[in-house]
Amino acid sequence: MAQDTNNKIFSLDSKRLEALSNDKDDMALCYGHFNLIHPGHLRYLRHAKTLANKLIVAIVSDKDLSKNTKEHYFHEKERAESIANIQCVDNVVILNNLSLARLVEALKPKALVLGREFEDKQPKQISSAIDLMKSWGEVVFYAGETHYATSDLLHDNVFDIEKNNRNKFNKVCQKHNITLKDIQDRLANFSNTKLLVIGDTIVDHYVACDALGMSAEAPVLVVKELENREFIGGAAIVASHVRSLGSSCHYISVVGEDSQASFVSETLNNQGIKTDIFYDSSRPTTYKTRYMVENQKLFRVSRIKDHKIPKEIEDKIVEKITLLAPKLDGIMISDFVYGVITNKILESITKLSEQFGFKLYGDLQCSSQVGKVSKFNGFDLITPTEKESRLALDDIESGIEWIANTLLERTHSKNMLIKLGADGFIAYSGNAKFTQRQNFPALSINPVDVTGAGDSLFAAMSVCLSSGASLIEASVIGTCMASLAVKQVGNIPITNNRLGQYISEVLE
Which of 75, 86, 372, 471 has its CA 20 to 30 A from that of 316? Predict the structure, then answer.
């Protein structure tokens, strides 16, 4: 087996290159340092392999590494062996003298697949190779790989990475001519929007603990409860974010006949949110308890009933939405697949949108095969994670670009975000197929609590688009909103003023 792996590897000057050049199979060519293989590398290579019959990977030689980085890198042979051991890779070429263009000319691959980091900034050896490729093939900048470069993981600290992400964020704003005044004007206009939020109500319960050690009776961690606190969550916190940003908000949901339901109703009413909350004795209000030690979650216990709501409640909800529809700028659906968003309710909302012209925003949060974001058809914005996008298409192999554009086409969505967790998100516009997308990096690299990131992002994006903002403007505001949300424990609403102050700090 070791001999087979070694046979995959050769230098640019090797005679074996000539034999490979004469190969009639289509080839895809990748390029990079490939130090410490991480999941992003694997996804990048697997995607490249889907574009051709053979995958050739070029790695930078040791002598072409800068003096400042050499000490942080494994030897070229070790890096080459690591890549050669990946099943989808057919051959590995060790480049000398940054000779990517020479390799491209020799192999004439069907596709040159480069990391997203080379899309806006291209060193000479990269740009030369790209120019050659234009004569016969395509150049693909793969979007969706792990955000951190390997060198970042080795020697950069959190503050350096966060600073770098902030610089990237500002470059995106400059690229699209987004100024601080533009954003401030958008924030000021939020008060003119009227939104309805409908979905599953959740109460988040946090228990702060002190770790005492391991039990003497069994391998179990023993903790002492210090403090506990409850927060509204699910669709309820989305409504709370919408109201805190300055928009008028109406909330519709189904809860149990319990103290948690009273807590949700009282909290929302105190925030000035009009509510129509329907009570179902067959289901307790969804309750999620998180046990934490020094801001680190140990585990979560969830109390959930996810059966369909009764028909009489379903009919009342449809009736209420119909009454509210003429005065709305948009309806936001926050669906955790716990039973509130039925097919009838979804169909009614879609028809009312066509009749009265308000916008539709959909966020489906599921970790299983039960719910699929593709049920949101013709929406102005959908916000799936990468996993949810793949579930919707039953596709775990294709590259993220194909996934995104296929989902846009299938759902007839005007706009879409694919959330990448710590890597931020990619914003796509469905107005022009395969052409309009922009990556937005995460601004908070060391989050305290990621629970509310998606909810706050969804709320900010929906309010922005309802106020007349472009997708890019909304994404700028949404990025900052999510960054603020993960800096605090618990799902706490972010005010318009606080968001504005943070944006003024971030934007140069």
Answer: 372
Both tokens assigned to 414 = 């005007």
pLDDT in tens, 460-490: 999 999 999 999 999 999 999 999 998 887 7
Closest CA relative to residue 288, chosen from 355, 349, 228, 331: 228
- Residue 471: inside a domain, yes or no? no
With residue 363 as reference, give the H or E element that holds it.
strand 359-364
Buried b (16+ CB within 10 A) or exposed e, 428-437: bbbeeeeeeb
DSSP H or E run through 113: strand 111-115
Q: Residue 157: what residue type? A: N
Match 């990475």 to its residue by tokens: 161
DSSP letters, 218-269, are SS-EEEEEEEEEEEEEEHHHHHHHHHHTT-EEEEEEEE-SSHHHHHHHHHHH
Q: Tell me if 222 is assigned to some domain.
A: no
**What's the CATH number where 57 sits?**
3.40.50.620
Task: Give, in degrees to the nearest 5, the angle at Cα 353 between 351 and 356.
Answer: 110
Structure tokens at 40: 């992003």
Answer whether 206's CB lies under 8 Å from 292's CB: yes
In a domain, 478, yes or no: no
Give residue-wise pLDDT tens across range 414-464.
Answer: 999 999 887 889 899 876 444 467 889 888 877 777 877 899 999 999 999
What total of structural domains would you count in the chain?
1
CB neighbourhood size of 508 (10 A): 11
Q: Give me the domain span that covers residue 91.
A: 2-155
Q: Which residues make beta-bridge pairs with 352?
A: none
Query: At 143, is the pLDDT very low, low, confident or very high (cuts 50, 70, 90)?
Result: low
Residue with tokens 């948690």: 260
Look at the alpha carbons of 108, 109, 111, 115 in this order and tell me if their dihedral is positive or negative: negative
404 three-class SS: helix
Asked if residue 140 is part of any domain, the answer here is yes
**Per-residue pLDDT reduced to its tens digit, 244-277:** 999 999 999 999 999 999 999 999 999 999 999 9
- What's the Cα-to-Cα distance from 482 to each of 336, 422, 444, 492, 498, rounded to whole Å? 19, 11, 9, 11, 12
